[in-house]
């Protein structure tokens, strides 16, 4: 059994320093709404090298907004001070805004044309700002560089990049090798996704009642289960992956049309619900909490669980069982979705070039390597870490990760070849949409309504939210 080093509190503190944990707990799901008034002005022209130096020794100040406590802001200030040491002509002033006031404060600042030069934002809030012209075009951020971030973690407004995620995170399947070994069931593959039927059959073999019978045996008692075969996290945004896997989409590829009322989407959601209500291989989950892995597979009595790559470095680091990582099962297509909190440059910045350079520096892998990437909390954003074997090995070959071949197949190659952008990368209003969808799916999880009926009955309301009405 492979040993895993436990993540200590200082590492988690450093994760906060770099603003994002990618688990979506801080500001993910909080949309940055703006008023319809004309609050934007054309971005100032980039400051030239000549007037940056200014002869008089004056420094350029850029502001960076961040949510958190004063203690957290002090840590972020240390990062800003490091940047100043490396770039003496630039001073980064930290604007610390309490978490619960962050969106409201940005709205107010936008209306007054007083947004900071750059800052952190939630995934679901980026294109709400971008659609109103409040984010700068950062197409040239990586011009001339040896590598750029993966396209799937690039936020685009009208086809133009307006933000990149500071970390890459994909959804994967985790499994308890000890439970698989006890049942003499082959492990899921890291290189080839199981079909959905294979996944259900495997889950049945690993779902055990009080009498020791599995869910595929005659006499199995679904009312007295002591071990479940799986959980598929139904925290709402993660459900999008199953629509894509089943040949459907929540929204059209151009982000202009809501297509969640199609048979493919309804079937994908119903299959997840059926794991609980028909197949009896998954415990009931209301879809209201973002704790799928930590509340399921980490309990030791669930064999498989879907979750984010970040779980390697958080709740799975230090578990007392042997776990592996594999690709998600597929309904029709082998697909994963990616996410990662972004850093942005606001279009009201008077120093957009300097702000862009700071954000680019801030997101460099080496700045978060020891505390976030090497621990398994973040995956790198630059494509070269997925295509250059030496760079790939530099982040997956350490004691915090599962076995090498599993990581190559289920993390590296999977992210490079099978990852699609989560909806908030290409269409606005996703936060309100997801919140409404979460509310209407409750009866599907309890078995009191079908996904088809719920999506049909609520499509007009969902579409109105999608359109920003």
Quick overview:
The chain is α/β, with parallel strands linked by helices and 469 residues long. The chain has helices at residues 9-17, 49-53, 70-86, 102-111, 126-130, 177-183, 196-205, 240-245, 263-277, 292-295, 352-362, 365-373, 384-387, 389-396, 404-417, 430-440, 442-446, 451-466, and strands at residues 60-67, 90-97, 118-120, 154-157, 160-165, 169-176, 208-209, 225-231, 302-308, 323-326, 336-339, 342-345, 419-421.
Give the helices and strands, then pairings.
Layout (H helix, E strand, L loop, with lengths): L8 H9 L31 H5 L6 E8 L2 H17 L3 E8 L4 H10 L6 E3 L5 H5 L23 E4 L2 E6 L3 E8 H7 L12 H10 L2 E2 L15 E7 L8 H6 L17 H15 L14 H4 L6 E7 L14 E4 L9 E4 L2 E4 L6 H11 L2 H9 L10 H4 L1 H8 L7 H14 L1 E3 L8 H11 L1 H5 L4 H16 L3
Parallel strand pairs: 1-2, 1-3, 8-9, 11-13
Antiparallel strand pairs: 3-12, 4-5, 5-12, 6-9, 6-10, 6-11, 7-8
Helix pairs in contact: 1-3, 16-18
């Amino acid at each position: 059994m492979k040993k895993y080093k436990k993540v200590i509190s200082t590492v988690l503190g450093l994760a906060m320093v770099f603003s994002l944990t990618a688990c979506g707990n801080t500001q993910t799901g909080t949309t940055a709404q703006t008023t319809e008034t004309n609050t934007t002005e054309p971005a100032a022209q980039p400051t030239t090298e000549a007037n940056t130096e200014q002869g008089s020794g004056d420094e350029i100040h850029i502001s960076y907004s961040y949510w958190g406590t004063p203690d957290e802001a002090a840590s972020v200030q240390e990062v800003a001070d490091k940047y100043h040491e490396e770039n003496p002509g630039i001073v980064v002033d930290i604007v610390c805004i309490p978490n619960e006031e962050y969106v409201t404060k940005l709205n107010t600042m936008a209306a007054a044309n007083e947004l900071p030069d750059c800052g952190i934002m939630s995934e679901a809030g980026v294109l709400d700002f971008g659609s109103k012209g409040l984010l700068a075009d950062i197409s040239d951020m990586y011009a001339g560089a040896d590598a750029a971030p993966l396209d799937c973690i690039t936020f685009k407004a009208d086809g133009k990049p307006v933000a990149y995620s500071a970390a890459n995170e994909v959804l994967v399947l985790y499994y308890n090798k000890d439970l698989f070994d006890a049942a003499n069931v082959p492990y899921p593959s890291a290189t080839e996704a199981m079909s959905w039927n294979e996944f259900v059959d495997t889950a049945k073999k690993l779902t055990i009642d009080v009498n020791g019978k599995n869910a595929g045996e005659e006499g199995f008692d679904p009312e007295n289960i002591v071990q479940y075969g799986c959980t598929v996290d139904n925290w709402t945004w993660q459900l999008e992956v199953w629509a894509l896997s089943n040949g459907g989409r929540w929204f059209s590829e151009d982000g202009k049309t809501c297509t969640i009322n199609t048979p493919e989407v309804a079937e994908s959601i119903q299959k997840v619900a059926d794991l609980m209500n028909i197949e009896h291989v998954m415990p009931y989950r209301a879809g209201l909490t973002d704790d799928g892995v930590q509340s399921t597979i980490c309990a030791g009595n669930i064999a498989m669980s879907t979750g984010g790559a970040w779980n390697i470095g958080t709740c799975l680091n230090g578990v007392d069982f042997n776990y592996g990582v594999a690709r998600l099962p597929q309904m029709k297509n082998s697909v994963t979705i990616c996410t990662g909190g972004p850093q942005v440059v606001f279009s009201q910045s008077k120093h957009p070039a300097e702000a862009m350079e700071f954000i680019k520096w801030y997101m460099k892998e080496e700045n978060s390597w020891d505390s976030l990437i090497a621990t398994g909390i973040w995956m790198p954003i630059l494509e070269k870490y997925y295509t250059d074997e030496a760079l790939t090995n530099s982040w997956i070959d350490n004691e915090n990760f599962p076995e090498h071949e599993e990581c190559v197949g289920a993390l590296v190659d999977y992210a490079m070849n099978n990852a699609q952008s989560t909806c908030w990368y290409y269409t606005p209003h996703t936060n309100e949409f997801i919140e409404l969808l979460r509310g209407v799916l409750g009866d599907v999880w309890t078995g009191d309504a079908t996904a088809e009926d719920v999506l049909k009955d609520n499509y007009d309301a969902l579409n109105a939210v999608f359109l920003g009405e």
